[in-house]
Amino acid sequence: MSSMFGSRLRLSLFGQSHGECVGAVLDGLPAGEKIDPEVLAAFMARRAPGQRLSTPRQEKDRVRIVSGLVEGVTCGAPLCLIIDNTDTRSSDYSLLRRVPRPGHADLPAHIKWHGFNDIRGGGHFSARLTAPLCAAGNLLMQIYARRGIRIGAHLYAACGERDLPFDPLRVREEDLALCASRYPAVLDAEAGERMMERIQALREKGDSGGGIVECAVLGLPPGLGGPLFDGLENRISAAVFGIPAVRGIEFGEGFAAAAMTGSTHNDGYRMRGGQPFPVTNHAGGVLGGLSTGAPLLFRAAFKPTPSIALHQESVDLEQGTDTPLSVSGRHDPCVALRAVPCVEAAAAIALADDLI
Amino acid sequence: MSSMFGSRLRLSLFGQSHGECVGAVLDGLPAGEKIDPEVLAAFMARRAPGQRLSTPRQEKDRVRIVSGLVEGVTCGAPLCLIIDNTDTRSSDYSLLRRVPRPGHADLPAHIKWHGFNDIRGGGHFSARLTAPLCAAGNLLMQIYARRGIRIGAHLYAACGERDLPFDPLRVREEDLALCASRYPAVLDAEAGERMMERIQALREKGDSGGGIVECAVLGLPPGLGGPLFDGLENRISAAVFGIPAVRGIEFGEGFAAAAMTGSTHNDGYRMRGGQPFPVTNHAGGVLGGLSTGAPLLFRAAFKPTPSIALHQESVDLEQGTDTPLSVSGRHDPCVALRAVPCVEAAAAIALADDLI
Amino acid sequence: MSSMFGSRLRLSLFGQSHGECVGAVLDGLPAGEKIDPEVLAAFMARRAPGQRLSTPRQEKDRVRIVSGLVEGVTCGAPLCLIIDNTDTRSSDYSLLRRVPRPGHADLPAHIKWHGFNDIRGGGHFSARLTAPLCAAGNLLMQIYARRGIRIGAHLYAACGERDLPFDPLRVREEDLALCASRYPAVLDAEAGERMMERIQALREKGDSGGGIVECAVLGLPPGLGGPLFDGLENRISAAVFGIPAVRGIEFGEGFAAAAMTGSTHNDGYRMRGGQPFPVTNHAGGVLGGLSTGAPLLFRAAFKPTPSIALHQESVDLEQGTDTPLSVSGRHDPCVALRAVPCVEAAAAIALADDLI
Amino acid sequence: MSSMFGSRLRLSLFGQSHGECVGAVLDGLPAGEKIDPEVLAAFMARRAPGQRLSTPRQEKDRVRIVSGLVEGVTCGAPLCLIIDNTDTRSSDYSLLRRVPRPGHADLPAHIKWHGFNDIRGGGHFSARLTAPLCAAGNLLMQIYARRGIRIGAHLYAACGERDLPFDPLRVREEDLALCASRYPAVLDAEAGERMMERIQALREKGDSGGGIVECAVLGLPPGLGGPLFDGLENRISAAVFGIPAVRGIEFGEGFAAAAMTGSTHNDGYRMRGGQPFPVTNHAGGVLGGLSTGAPLLFRAAFKPTPSIALHQESVDLEQGTDTPLSVSGRHDPCVALRAVPCVEAAAAIALADDLI
C-alpha cells in the first residue's frame, strides 16, 4: 500500500482517525516560498467539523508545521505538517471489529490486514485524512496564487438539489471567492438553502445523502500535462479518488459528451488578440491530456455518508450470524458539504508535478 | 512527460500514428507464463480498424514480441512488443501543422513541444497507441485467466442508444464472452443494431457520436488495492484516462449515487456459506479503495470522434487568421465502438500491481 | 529533491538539524508486526551522540511513533516516527550563511536554494537525519529477524587502523551481536583501542579522521534483486550514499577484484546437502544483482568529519573576500564511529522492496 | 524486477543476449533535439565487440530508432531504439542450464525465475544489454554537449597496470577527447600497451582480469542533485551498478578518504573572478549530494570476466553432482576494456533527471 502521490513533488499522508494525529510530508517544494498561516487556517476552517449540519466532533484542526520552514518560508527541505486528534472517542467503535459497517471499508480492510487494521473511526480509511490533504493542498494553492493560478470549487449538487454550474469559458476568480466564502459553497444562495433543508430532513430520518462538487482551475498555461498516462485527467482523477466517498469524476461535458455529436462537442478556434482561443469549452480545458489555456473544469460525485442511524443488514464475524446494525456516533449527513475544499486540495496536489 | 504506468509491473508505450511502428515494454511479468499468440490475435482483431463503421485504414495489427519470451513462455526479462504501422498516409495531414483540429490535442501539443511534435495522424496522441495498450493488456488477461480473474466490457451506450447494463451482483463469464464475440459488443443485439443505425446516420452527415463502455472484473479476491491514493479507483482511472477520448469514469452507481440516500446506496451484508456477502452491489465491488469480492464495475464515457467532415471553426497559425476546417482522412464515426477492448486492457494494466 | 526511498515500501525522511524535530514516514509495512520499543531504543543508543569521542551534543533520541501502530503492532497504515531535537544551539551557526564550511554542502546548498536553505547545523543535510534513518531501519530489522534475516556491521577501519574483516563465507550471527555490543563496534577489541587512540590524537589537534564500515546480511534467500538497475548493489548503494560523508561502496572483493584474475575471483560451486553451494564468497553474496544465498557483504568508506577546529581557507560571500575559518561547535572527530548502525539501517531499507 | 531507471526521464532496457534484439525506450526527452546518427555510431563503435583483445562475436550494433524522431529531431514522444542481434550462436550455451557458470548470475537467476530464465548467453543479464545502455546514454550526451556538459572516461587500471589519473581540478575536454580516440582508452599510451600485454598473457592462459574505469563530468552547474537519497552519488551509483561486473564505486578520493584527515581532505575555498572556487577537489565535485561546480569524478571497479577457459568447480543441477566446467565460447578477457563508454553512458543516464 502507498498513501503517497506524485513524482517531482511527493505527498505522503499518515495517521488514523482516532490515533494521536494525522499529517503529511510534502517533499519537493521550492525554497523561498512564504507560507501564510492565516490563509492556511481559513482554508482548514472550511473543511473543519463542527459546522452546520456536520459532525459535532470538535477538532480545531490547527496545522503544526514541524519541518521545512525557516521563519515561515520554505527552505527546500521536506515539509512535515501535523494535525493533532484532540476529540477522539474510541469507545464508540468497539463493536465494529465484529460487525462491519455497510458502505465502509471495514470488511475488506479486515481481510487485507488480517484483522490488524485500526478499526477506530475507520483508521487510515477515515475522511479525517482529508485534513492533512487539505493542509498540503492549501500550501500549494498559496504558491500557485503567486503565479496567477487559482483553484476553486462549489457544491454543484446535494441530495437532488442543484446549484448553478460554473460558466465553462467565463468562470472568474470572483466566482471562486464567492463560493469559498459561503457555507454551503454555492453560486446560488437559494439553491444552497434548499440543499440544507434536504440534508436536515435526511438527518432527522437517520439517513444521509450524496452530492457533486464542481471544481475550476483558472490561469493554467496551455501545454501542461502529457499524452497517455501523463494527462491532467489521469493525475487529477488519481488524486481525487483519494478522497473517501468519491464514486466518479468527469471533465468538461463528461458523461454528457457520450450523447453529443462531434459538431456540437468540438470547441472551435478563433483568433483573439493575435492568439487562437476556443469559442466554447466543452473540453473543460483539457485536450489529449494537455491543458488548453481555457478554465479546467471537472466534477466529482460523492456517495451518501455510509454511517447512518437507520437499521442496516450486517453480519457478526465472530458468531457467523446475520445481525442488524445502526451506526451511532457523530457523522456528517452529507459528506459532499465539507468535501468542497478537499476537491480543491486534491486538484492542487495533482497539478504539482506540472506546476512546481 | 511519461507514457509509463505502474510500479511493480511497468508498462511503457511508444510510437506515433504514422511512424514506423507502435509498441510497448512490459517490465515485471512473472517468469513461466505461456503466451498464446492466437488469443492475442483474436483480442487485437476486436480493436483493429477495418470493421463495420470504423476507419477504412488497413492495419493487420500483428503483434511481434521481440524480447521476454523463450519458446512462447515468459522468461522474467522485460517483454517488448512491436506492431508495425503498415498503412500510413502522411500526406493526409500536411495542413494540420498550420490549422489545429478542434477537439484534438494539436494546438496544446504544438505549444508544449514548440512545434516539434509529430503532427502526422496526431503522432503520439493518436488512438493508434491503443493497439500496444491492447496487446499489453491481453498478455496480462491471459495470465489473470489462469488465476480465475476475467475482465470484459460492453458498449453500454452509443449516440443516445443504450444496451442493457451488467447485473451488478450476478454478471457472469458467459456475459463477458457473449459481448466479446459480438460487434458491436453488446448484451442486447437489438440495441446494438439501433446503435449502428445511429452511427451510420451520423457518418452520412459527416458528423460523429460518443458512447459509454461498461467494464466488469470477475474473480478479484477481496482486499486488493489500498487507502487514499492507492485505491483501485485511483489506479483504474489513471489507466483508463490513458485511452484517448475518455471524458469521465464512474464506479458502481457512480454519479447516480450523488442523488441516492445512505439507506438505498449502502450494500448490506448477509452470511452465505459461512462468509459475509453483500446483498447488493451499488459499490461496484470497491469500498475505500479495496476490492470487496463482488464484481468490480465501472463505466467510461467517450466523447464523439473529433475528426469530422463537417465544417468547423479553426485558425491558421501561420497567417493569424480564422479559417474553416473540414477534416478528411479515414476516421471512426464513433470511437467507443472499438474502445471496448481498450477499456478491458486498461483495467488489466491498472490491476497488475495488485495481481502480478 | 526527494528525501524518499523505495517503491513497495517507501521511506520519507524529514526534519532539519536544529529544527523542531527529525522524523520519517514508512509506508507499506505489513500489518500485524510487533514493534519492540526497547530493541528500538537500544539500537538508537548505538548511534546516539554523547558517547566516547563523539559530539557532546545531548540528544536522548527517543523515538515517538505517532501513527501506524495499534497497541504496539503495525496496523497497515503508514508509520510516522518523530525524534525531537532537544539540544539545539542555533547561535553556533550564525556566521555560516556568509562563510561556507569546506567539505560541507553549505555552498552548493546556498546556490541550489537561493539562500533560503536552513543553514543551522547543516539543516536537512545534517548527519542528524541519520537518527530517523536508524529508527526506520531498526523497525525493518525487527521484522527481518523474525524471518531469519540478520544485518550487522562493524568499524572495519578508522584513521588508518584496521579491524579484522568478516569471514566472507562463515560470518555468523554471533559475530554481528559481538560488534553490536561494543563501542567502537569491532571484532578485534585491541584494534578498536588503537582506533580510539588515533581519534583522540586527531581531536586534540583540532583535526578529524575517516573510516570504513563493513556490513553483512545473513539469511537472505537466493534470487532476491534483479538484473540491470534492479540489482541489490544498485539499491544498497542508492541507500547507503544517503548517509552523509559516504564516499565509496564496494561489494565482496570490490576494488580489489580489479587486480584479480577470473580463476582466483570466481566462486566455484560444490554440492552440499543436495544443494549447490559456493566454495568461496569473493562475490560478497551477490551475482548479477541477485543474492546467491551466501552472506551479503559490502563496505562503505567515510570521509573525515569536515567540521574541524583547525584553520581552513574559506570565503566571505557577502564581502567577496577570502577569509580563514575555524569551525567550533560540537562535532564527532570521526563520523565512521557512530555510522555503524546507520549502515545497517540503510541496508535494511534498501532490502525492503525485496523482503517486505 | 525492473530494468528501468529514472523519474523525469525514464529509461527502459529490454532484450536478451541471444534473442532477436536488444533495445531501450527513453521517455521524457525534450522536443527539438537533433540526434546525429554518426556521433551515435562512433560512440557505439567504442563499445562494439570485435576489437583487439575482445570477443570475436561480430555485431555491427547499428542502432535503429523506431519512434520519437521526426526527420532526425526529437518530437517529445518516447524514443525507442533497437539493436538487432545478428551473430547469435545459442548452441554454445546448451549445457549451461544444467551446470551454472561460476561468477555469473546463472544459478541465482535459475532460482529466481524457476528455470524459465533465458540461459542463452546470460539472457537479460548479459553485458550485451550495455549496447542499448550506450545508445541511450549517447543520445543524452549529444544533448548535454549542446549545454556545455561533457562526460568522458578512461581505463584507469587493468590487470594490475595503471593509467595516469585525471587531474581532479583541471581535467579538460581535450583529455576526454584523447581517451575517446584511443583503444584502450588511456591518458598514457604506454600504460595502455602494458595493460594490453597483461590482458594478452591472461587470455593465453585461458584466464581473465579486472580493471577500473575513471569517469569525469565537466561543466555541471553547482547545486544539482539533492540531500539524502537524491544525491548525485546515489543516482550515479544506482546507474553504474547496472553495468554487469561492477563491484564498487567511489567519488573523489573515495576509499582513500577513509585514511585521510579533515585538514587534508577538505577542499578550501578562494574567491576567483568574484566567485568562490575550491582550491582542491578531493570531493570529486560533489558535496552532500550536490554538484560543486568542480569536475565530477568517480571510479568504478570491474571484476575479471567470469567466463574463462580454465577449469573451474561447478555442479550438475540435474544429476546433483560436482563437475568441472570450462567455459568455451567467445569472451572478452577483460570486460573493463570495452566498459569505458558504458560508464560514460551510465553517468549520462544518472544525470538526466537533473539535466533534462
The number of distinct structural domains of chain A comes to 1
CATH architecture title of chain A? 4-Layer Sandwich
Strand tally of chain A is 18
* DSSP helix fraction of chain A: 25-40%
**Strand arrangement in the largest pleated sheet of chain A:** 1-2-3-7-4
End-to-end Cα distance of chain A, whole Å, is 26 Å
CATH hierarchy, class of chain A = Alpha Beta
Question: What is the H/E order of chain A?
Answer: EEEHEEEEHHEEHHEHEHEEEEEEEH
Instruction: Give the CATH topology of chain A.
Output: Chorismate synthase, AroC fold
Helical segment count of chain A? 8
Oligomer: homotetramer
Question: How is this structure best described in words?
Answer:
The structure is a homotetramer of 356-residue chains. The first copy, chain A, is of the alpha+beta class and 356 residues long. Chain A has one domain: Chorismate synthase AroC (Chorismate synthase, AroC fold, 4-Layer Sandwich). Chain A is built from 8 helices and 18 strands. Chain A has a 5-stranded antiparallel beta sheet. In chain A, a hairpin with a 2-residue loop joins strand 8 and strand 9. In chain A, helix 3 crosses helix 8 (336-355) and helix 6 (232-240) crosses helix 8 (336-355). In chain A, 69% of the residues are buried. The B-D interface holds B 1-4, 10, 12-16, 19-23, 25, 27-28, 31-32, 66-68, 70, 73-80, 82, 109, 112-114, 116-118, 123-124 and D 1-4, 10, 12-16, 19-23, 25, 27-28, 31-32, 66-68, 70, 73-80, 82, 109, 112-118, 123-124.
